[in-house]
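If your schedule permits, I should be very grateful for your opinion on a structural question. I have a record of one protein: its chain in single-letter code and its fold written as discrete structure tokens. Kindly check, if you would, that the fold set down in the tokens agrees with what the sequence suggests. I remain grateful for any guidance, and I place the record below:

***
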Amino acid sequence: MINTPLSKSDRINELDIFRGFAILGIFMVNILVMNVSFAYRGEWETEQVGWLQQSSLFVLETLFYSKFFPLFSLLFGTGVALQIQSAKQKGNYSNAFFIRRFGALLLFGLIHILFIWSGDILHLYALFGFLLLLLFMSSAKTLLWLAAIVFLFPFYTYIFEQIADWFQFDYNSPLTSLSRAEIMELKHHGSYVSGMSLRLKEYAFATPFIYSGIAPIALSMMLLGGYIVKRGWLNNLYEKLIQVGPYLFGTLAILLIYRFSLIYWIMPSFDIPFGSALSIALFTIYQLSDICITFSMIWMIGYLWNKDNFKQLLSPLRYVGRMALSNYIFQSIVGYLIMRTFNGYEYFSAFECILLVLTIYSVQIFISKLWLTYFEFGPLEWFWRCISYIKLLPIRKSINE
């Protein structure tokens, strides 16, 4: 039997709100990579002088860097677990359905990398999606333990380097052999084909970060999303937020003290060799502080959503969240047009990047709300569903709605 789409009543508003918030945070980070090559980010940041630029970098570092792909990963895992749970409850679970679904997502990601932007995350989610089909057969307790093991395992960088050496994969020099000026020239005046070649070099350069940095945290958050679904926390989400609040913010206070001590005292004062056991332990706790900040932000959003005075303020996030895939790709297309077609590459300061994101996101809210007035799904969401269900699903809202 073929899975049937979720009805509107099956949607959980908080998840759409969280997705909308995640789309904002992801774009706030991605715009910086669109604005200046990852290989020369350090140089660019040292050029951001003055209190306004330094304050902007502080806000980006504290509230955005490494904060939103864990949230997006958690929501992805939650969404997959909910869909599996719903299919099994209806008695129409099909591995073929999910294989088509993740296969289509993988194709979207590869097209995204090659033709639009090298910083894609969809291909990684698709690959993990196949793995989740097996892992989500486990109990909630097992998923929680797996999430902890995946997160705390310390040798991802070592394993990646060994694999790269074995395959003689040179991920670094294809991009770093180009000077900053040469990359700028390619971005401003290069052909579309040269842009495709550059995107592949950028992706290769980012592979250590993607597969030894992002991937383990992403997978652990997906497993945590499955744990949340299996424990039934989404059935009484507000009550669960109230229950965990004191523990979450107590942990946050401790980790923030650690975080700023590491940045402003330990690292400047002590010579800690990179890759040593101590450096791995210190960085792992630092990553925990990132995730704790993320959870604290979504806790606040989930809490305020249940307060009438804030529901209308947060409601626009829901429209963007319901079209998360379309809006994610939309951001890449707009970023490409600004940075390449209109020669905006390396034009924007840190503060201007923030303003640019807020402006584009405001437009996305308007477009998403307008689109969802007439259509059931975002355009890419609809196309993805059609592939997944192997049928042409209606997209327009019925006249009675």
